[in-house]
Design a protein that fits this description.
BH3618-like, two-stranded antiparallel sheet, globular
Length: about 150
Amino acid sequence: MKITSSIVGEVEVSADRVIEFPAGLPGFEACKQFTLLHAEGNEAPKAFMLQSLNDPEVMFSVTTPDVLGLNYEFTLTDDEVAALQLVNSDDVSLLLIVRHNDAADSNPAESPVRANLMAPLVLNTATRRGLQKVIGRVDTSVTLRAVG
């Protein structure tokens, strides 16, 4: 499948790279198919682009919680496990939607990154199905890393 996005240009997406979100994402319920992209030449990317295949104008920057020094622990409901078609817990992967500060006068390279900690994306890597888990309380362990 070929998509054309104003953000990433023309991209060929093979069927094995499609992630299905049966319920869509909150606010983007019509967007049910996505793919993960990263910058060319980046062998070990820390951030990805979650590109909608249903609407080429919809894209989210995402990263894994460990990049931010976070460790999540929460329980999936039976309905969530069924929606993900989850059989093996080792197939679960988490992503966080991140964004730079929206201030018009801020330099994106210097502006803080904000992560949506209250609604991680839960992916079943075996079935390529996902959902956004909206949680009421976050119990995370945070590791502070020295910069520089």
